Amino acid sequence: MAAIIVLIVLAVMWALLAVPRQREARRHNAVLSSLAVGDEVMTGGGLFGTITEIGDDHVRLEIAPGTIVKFTKRAVATRVDAEPPSPSAADTTVGSTDRSED
Is the pLDDT reported for residue 98 higher than 60? Predict the structure, then answer.
């Protein structure tokens, strides 16, 4: 009976720890395989740049006009959307803080 409980606990731990990590790895690999010259990306360190060259295991990013740096592909964390999402109506609602005194 105790062995079954231990196996159940191990299965739950695996489901909580390993499955999300595998899902994130698949998402990251999909991002890396879809990179193209001209995409704006962000590295794992938070550096933004535009891809100017893609090699087998590296990318070159232009981080400022005329400044090109070389990174491994794995350093690219995500592709940056061209337009930031517009704020929702709930985010733009401003409460009334003006209180007039009698």
Answer: no
Characterize 19-28 residue by residue with b for buried, 16 or more Cβ atoms within 10 angstroms of its Cβ, and e for exposed. eeeeeeeeee
The pTM score is: 0.64
CB-based burial label for 59 (10 Å; 0-12, 13-18, 19+): buried
pLDDT tens, position by position, 21-65: 999 999 999 999 999 999 999 999 999 999 999 999 999 999 999
Whether the Cβ atoms of residue 80 and residue 63 lie closer than 8 Å to each other: no
CA–CA distance, 11 with 79 (Å, rounded to integer)? 34
Tell me which architecture the domain covering 2-83 has in CATH.
Answer: Roll (2.30)
- Hey, where are the domains in the chain? 2-83
